[in-house]
Amino acid sequence: MPKSAMSAVSGDAAAAPSWAHSPESEVSDEEVVLTKKDEVAREAAELLAQQKRLSVRDLTNKFERAQVAAQVAAAKVAAEHAHHTRVKETTVLDKEAVFKKLKGLLTDLRSRLGGRNKDDVEEGIKAVETLTVLFTQRESELADERAEVRKMAALFKQASDDAKTMVEEARAVAHNEIEAAKATAAKVEAALHEQEQIWTAADKKELEDLKREAQEARRIKMLHESSKAMDMEHQIEGLRQQLAEKVGEVMKLRKELESLKRQGQEGVKQQLYQLTGDEHLGTTLSIVAMDDRASDISLCSFQWYRIPADGSYTHLISGAIRPQYAPEPFDVGKFLRAEINLPTGKIEAVQTSGPVDPAPGLEKYVEILVSKGGAQFNVRIVLKNGEIVEKQTLHTLDINKSRIKLHKGRTVKAKENYSTGMQLCGARGGGDSAAQGLFWVPKKGMTFMLVLESERERNAAILLSRKFSKLANIHLGGPDDVLHQEA
C-alpha cells in the first residue's frame, strides 16, 4: 500500500468528529433528554396533587403561579430541545458523510491491496457497516424518546388546561352562590322595609298615645297606693299609741289591785319596793323603792324567778341578779318574781301583776323567717369569753335550719351546728341594753354577749333559733334552764 494512500486514510480518520470514536458522548446526550423528561413529569405530578387538595381560591392563586413557572420551564425545555435537535441533525449529517467517505476510502483501498492487508481492509469495511447499523438503531431509539417527551408535554398541557377549567368552574359556582346570597339578603331587606311601611303614621301615633296613657295610669296608681299606704301607716301608728296607753292603764290598775290584795292579806303593811315597766316582751322591768324606809337599791342583792300561771313551781333564772331584767320568749305566759335581800337580812319580794304578754306581731314575723329558711341579724360583740371587747364592730349573726354562724365578711368568729352543748337566751345581766342583748354559748369554753339593733330583732333571733333547733330534737335555753318544762 502506497504511503500516500495510508496518509490520506489516516488524515480522513483523524478529521472525523471525536464522538464517532467515543460511545460515552452518545450516552451523555441520552441522559440529558431523560433528565428533562423526568423534570417535566415530576412538575406535572406535583401540579395534579396540589389541584386535588387546595381550595378554589388557593388553587387559583397557586395554579396561576405554577402555570407561569411551568410555562417558563416548558419554554426553556423547548429551547434546549430545539438547540439539541439542531446540533444532533448537524452531527448526524456529519456522521453519515464520514461513514460514507470512510467506506468509500476502504473500498478503494481494498481494490489496491491484496493478501493479508486486503483481509484487514475487509474487516475494517465490516466494522464500518456494523457501526453504521448501530448508529441507525441509536438514532431510532432517540427518535422514540423524543416522541415520548412530546407526549408528556402534551399531557402536561392537557392537565394544565383541565386544572384551569376546574378553577373556572369552581369560580363560577362560587359566584353563583354569592349572587344567590345577595338576592336572598335583598329579599329579606325588602320584606323588612315592607313591614316597616305597614306601620303607618297613624298607627305609630296611636301606639305613642297608648304608651303615654299607660305611664300616666301607672303614675296615678303609684301615687294613690303610696298615699293609701301612708294613711294606713298613720292609722296603725295611732292605734298602737292608743293600745299602749290602754295597756299602761290596765297594768296600772292591775298593779293597784294586786297591791290592795296583798295589803288585805298582810294587813296594812306598806309595800317598800315596786316593779316598773310594761309587762310584755320587748321591755325592761326595774325594781324601784316606794318608801323612804326602804334600803338603798345599791346595797341590796337580787334574784329573779320564773313562775308558771298555775303556780306549780318556781324556777330560778340563773344570772338574773340585777335590779333590771328584760323578759325573753321563755317568760311569755309566766309570772316574774324578784326577791330583794336587804342589808338587815330581811327579804322583800315583788312580782308582775300578771303573766308576761307576747310582743305584737312577733310570732307572725318569726313564721315568715322560718318559711324563708333562716335570717341574718346585725349584731355587735360586747363580751367574748367574759372579757369586754374594746372595738365593737358590726358583725352578722346567720341563723338557719342546721347551724348558727357569727361572722364579719369572710372572717368567721363562730360556726356551730345545733347541739346539746349550745346555749342561747336573752341577756340577764341588766343594763340599758338588756332588752336588746343576747347570750350565746356556741360550744364549751366559748361565750358571746351580743347586742342586736332592736328588741324585736333580739326576740326574733331567739325564737327562730329555738324553732330550728327543735327540728333536730334539741331545746335551746340559757344556763340552768329546765328545758323539758320550758318546752
From TrEMBL:
Residues 376-481 form the Stomatal closure-related actin-binding protein PH domain. Residues 91-257 form the Stomatal closure-related actin-binding protein coiled-coil domain. Residues 273-370 form the Stomatal closure-related actin-binding protein Ig domain. Residues 1-31 are annotated as: Disordered. Residues 178-263 form a coiled coil. InterPro entries: SCAB (IPR039640), SCAB-ABD (IPR032012), SCAB-Ig (IPR032015), SCAB-PH (IPR041144), SCAB_CC (IPR032009). It comes from the Eukaryota. This is Stomatal closure-related actin-binding protein 1. It comes from Riccia fluitans.
